[in-house]
Design a protein that fits this description.
Layout: E1 4-12, H1 17-27, E2 31-39, E3 43-51, H2 53-62, E4 66-78, H3 83-93, E5 98-104, E6 111-118, H4 121-130, E7 134-135, H5 138-143
Antiparallel strand pairs: 1-3, 1-4, 2-3, 4-6, 4-7, 5-6
C-alpha cells in the first residue's frame, strides 16, 4: 500500500506559533516536505509530511505539542488544466469522499503532487490504482 504518514500538530491561533513548530523541526534537522495550515478562531491544525516522521513526532511531543498521525495518499498528476478535475471526477463517480487535500511542489517536470485524506482510504486507493493514477510511497516522498 502506498500510504504516507502525515502529522497533524494542534496549535493555538496566535502569532509565532507556526514559527515555533517549523523552527523546532529545523533545529532537529527534520525536513518538511509538505505543509498545510487550517485555522479556526482559537486553534490551528498544521498538517505536515516530513522526512523523519518518527523523530518529528517525538520532538514535537517532547516539546509539549499535541499531535496526531494520519494516513494519506499522495498522487502525481499532470501539471496542466483539467488534470485534477479528471481525478476528482473518477473519485466522485465511485462515491469516494475527500475530507481534505493540498498540493506541494514536485521536482518532476510537468507534474504536480496532490495529497488526499479520504474517508475510505482502502476504497480510494483501489480506485486510484485501477484508474492508473500514480501514487507515492513514504520512501518516494522522502526523496522529493
Amino acid at each position: 500500500m502506498k500510504r504516507i504518514r502525515q502529522i497533524s500538530v494542534f496549535v493555538e491561533n496566535r502569532p509565532g506559533r507556526l514559527l515555533e513548530v517549523v523552527e523546532l523541526l529545523g533545529k532537529h534537522d527534520i525536513n518538511i516536505k509538505a505543509l498545510s495550515l487550517a485555522d479556526s478562531s482559537d486553534f490551528g491544525i498544521v498538517r505536515l509530511v516530513v522526512k523523519g516522521t518518527d523523530e518529528a513526532i517525538k520532538v514535537l511531543r517532547d516539546n509539549g505539542f499535541t499531535i496526531s498521525e494520519t494516513n494519506i495518499i499522495a498522487c502525481i498528476i499532470d501539471d496542466k488544466p483539467g488534470a485534477l478535475a479528471k481525478i476528482l471526477r473518477t473519485l466522485a463517480n465511485n462515491q469516494i469522499n475527500i475530507e481534505y487535500m493540498y498540493g506541494f511542489a514536485s521536482p518532476i517536470q510537468g507534474k504536480a503532487v496532490m495529497v488526499f485524506k479520504f474517508s475510505e482510504l482502502d476504497k480510494a486507493e483501489k480506485i486510484l490504482e485501477e484508474n492508473g493514477v500514480q501514487t507515492l510511497t513514504q520512501e518516494e516522498i522522502r526523496e522529493i
